Amino acid sequence: MSSDLLNKFSALSIAEPTLTQEQKGLQAQWDSVAKSGNVQGSIDELNLHLRDHSFVLGTAKPSVSDVLLFEHVLPVVKEITHSSKDVKGNYAKYRHVLRWAQYLDSLLQLEDLKLNLDLDLPREVIEKKKKEASGE
Asked: Running along the chain, 136 residues long, what does each successive block of 10 average in pLDDT?
């Protein structure tokens, strides 16, 4: 399937961005996750990363790395969203991965991902790290 998805992505004429050193590191990290096939073990980390980024490399537009990872994330996302246990909780917990996956699904015109966008999800609470008291 990846060559099919990559062909669809290439047909969109989205230029690959020029990457910074940090983005090249992210590319190596996420491409490695995609190649390992162990996306399930990295889904929490991916969700946290996508909280602050639209795409996996932190770029303004999707990249080949997004498409490669998306191919492996799609079955996991389907499992998360169609499980009979705590669907609302799963949507809330993985909201960033779901947003990213839904965008790529739409961009690639797969229409494979059916999300319930009418769920009333709790607000996301992001805890700030407390500053340690100085020992003066």
From this structure: 80 87 96 91 94 94 94 90 74 87 91 68 59 56
CA distance 134 to 136: 6
Tally Cβ neighbours within 10 Å of residue 38.
12
Between CA 107 and CA 117, with CA 111 as vertex, the angle to 5 degrees is: 90
Question: Cα(5)–Cα(7) distance, rounded to whole angstroms?
Answer: 5
Between the two ends of the chain, the Cα-to-Cα distance in Å is 61
Report the C-alpha gap between 11 and 58 in whole angstroms. 22
Helix and strand totals (H; E) in the chain: 6, 0
Which contacts (CB < 8 Å, 24+ apart) does range 107-114 have? 107/9, 107/12, 107/62, 108/5, 108/8, 108/9, 108/67, 108/70, 109/8, 112/74, 112/78, 113/74, 113/77, 113/78, 113/81, 114/81
3-state secondary structure 49-84: HHHCCCCCCCCCCCCHHHHHHHHHHHHHHHHHHHCC
